Amino acid sequence: MPSAGMPRTAASCCAWRKRERYYVERKRNARSVCRRFKDGMGAPIRSVVLQLARSEVHRRVEFQRHAKRVARLQGPSLADFEEQDGSVIALGAIDALLNETLPPDVRADYAAASAGRRFIEATGYVRWYPRDLAILREALGSISTPVLGIWGEKDPLVPPINADLLLQRLPKSRAIYLDASHFVWEQQPEAYATSVLDWVKGRYAAL
Prior knowledge:
The protein is mostly helical. It has a domain of 65 residues. The chain is built from nine helices and two strands. The longest helix has 26 residues. The chain is globular. It starts with 9 loop residues before the first helix and ends in a 7-residue tail after the last helix. The N terminus is likely disordered.
């Protein structure tokens, strides 16, 4: 008898292989992003960011192969972040992913939001992805609240295939894809704001 996470038909097998190829490509993208971090960020930060990306790729592939093993996987250590001010990490990520210069006041706002230990406290949940995402995956079908997702078509960290997975599992959901990378609201502010306003003004009711 096939195990819980294995493909059972030719069609599902093809879909599984397609997803696995995608995660291999995502791993390459993660390496590319890490290489673009400024030298001032330091090797430990680049190493941990790549470790986080690799852990996510590994977790997803293993989930497809052996669903029961997911809960036992451990997330990466964030110890290397402990010695870094969160504002430096946040600004390094923005410089690597945004590919454009933000106004000084906006950069200062991002820095303040992650200063001190705020970054590590906010990203600590990543270590629990292997355990919690398997549980949440089973709960998605029970969510009846309309959900809007706004996705960057060129996002190397959270690519649009994640939107496809959520559309399949959330009963009432809609995805909007914008020509942007990870920071969609910065690169497409008008389209982003319009999408949100249209949704809260009543478009959600159409689902």
